[in-house]
Design goal:
The chain has three helices and six strands. It has 148 residues and is an alpha+beta fold. A six-stranded mixed β-sheet has the order 2-1-6-5-4-3, with helices on both faces. A hairpin with a 7-residue loop joins strand 1 and strand 2. The longest helix has 26 residues. The chain is globular, with a radius of gyration of 16 Å.
């Protein structure tokens, strides 16, 4: 692979991941956009940790049918909520993103977490998504579990 084509793959991979965040923000703002339209039908979708939302879903169908119905009701919706990328680190078809998550639980308690997100991109689609975050904060705020 030439130097130029490697740079092209890296640039395309980062563009796809940046579009995911644009779509996610638009969807959270009420626009009729599917924020998962940049994910391949056979995406491997992983949420790390030991929370009730942690797990591995194989395929966009499983994400939409199993993960999202459990996740969506747990977070409040308000202006300024969402997942906000701070830094993109791309090489080839892999993109790491450092991000801040801002939101609130259903009682209005603020949720501000730091995320490490891993993406792999093939043929212009996200084929692997791994989400890592401070799960102790998620337990306390989202699931309202007191930790000692």
């Amino acid at each position: 692979m030439s130097e130029n084509s490697a740079a092209d793959v890296t640039a395309q991979s980062e563009r796809v991941v940046r579009q995911f965040f644009v779509d996610l923000k638009a969807a959270l703002n009420g626009e009729g956009i599917n924020p998962y339209r940049t994910m391949a039908g056979d995406v491997e979708f992983v949420v790390t940790g030991q929370t009730p939302l942690s797990g591995r879903w194989n395929g966009l169908g499983e994400v939409m049918e199993d993960f999202l119905p459990k996740a969506s009701p747990l977070m409040g919706r308000a202006a300024g909520h969402g997942l906000f990328p701070l830094e993109f680190i791309a090489e080839g078809n892999r993109v790491a993103v450092l991000a801040r998550g801002r939101g609130s639980n259903v009682l209005g308690m603020p949720y501000n977490n730091t995320y490490f997100l891993w993406f792999e991109v093939q043929d212009g689609m996200i084929t692997r998504y791994i989400e890592d975050f401070d799960s102790s904060l998620a337990w306390r705020i989202i699931f309202r579990v007191h930790l000692e």
